[in-house]
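[agent] plan:
  1. take the single chain provided in the ticket
  2. run structure prediction with default settings
  3. attach C-alpha cells to the ticket
  4. add a short note for the reviewer (M.T.)
[agent] executing step 1
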Amino acid sequence: MHLIDHEVPIFVYYPLMLPWVLATVLDLCDAKGAEDTAKNMTCATLHHYFRTVIKFTYRPTVLQTKREAMVDGILVAGSSKEQIARIEAYIDIEDHSKEIEEVEIQLADGAKPKIARLWVT
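[agent] step 2 finished; step 3 output follows
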C-alpha cells in the first residue's frame, strides 16, 4: 500500500488546470494567489487514461484503459494539508480513489521524464 500525503505532487485536470480556478478552490482569491499557485504548477500528461463524465453528476473523472489514450493536466506541488483538503472537497474525493501513477512532464530542455505519485480516480 502506498500512502499519498501533502508532499506528493497532485495531478489535476479539467477546471483545476486553470490557475485562477485552483487558487479559488485553495481560497487564494486575489491575483497574487493565482500567480503564486501557477508557480507550483507544471503541464503533465497521464497516459493510458481517458477523461469522461460521471453519469447523473456531470463531474469529470478519468478512467484507465489499455488503449492508447492520454489526459492532459497539471502537476501541482508544494500543497499544504489544508490545501489538499480543499482540493479533495472540490473533487468530492469520496467518489475517487488515490492511486500512484506515472505522468509525463516536459522540462525546459525538452526532456520528458516520468514522475510518479498522483491522484486519479
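[agent] step 4 note for reviewer: The CA atoms of residues 100 and 117 lie 4 Å apart.
[agent] ticket updated
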